[in-house]
Amino acid sequence: MTTSSTHRARGRRRNKVWSLVGGAVVGTALVAAAAPAPVAARHGADGPDASVALLVGRILDTGERDEGDTDDEDGVERCGGQAFRAGLCGALQRQRVLATAHGAGSVVRESTASGPDGGAKAVALPTDAGGPLEISLAEPGRLTHVTVRDGHGRHVGGALGAVDHRWTNTEPLRAGEHYTVRVAAQDAAGTPVGVTMAFRTAPPREHDRLTVEFGPRPGTYGAGQIVTASLSHPVPAADRTARARLEGALQVTSEPAVEGSWHWVDDSTLHYRPRGYWPAHTEVRVHSGLDGVEIGELHGGPSEPSHLTIGERVEAVTDSAAHRMTVRRNGRVLRSIPVTTGKAGFLTRSGVKVVLGKEAKVRMRGDTVGIRRGTTEFYDLPVLYATRVTWSGEYVHAAPWSVEAQGEENVSHGCTGMSTADAAWFFDLVKEGDIVEVVNSGGERMTPFDNGFGDWNLDWSAWQAGSALAAATEPSLGPAVPRASTVAHAPSRLRPLT
Question: pTM of the prediction?
Answer without folding.
Answer: 0.63
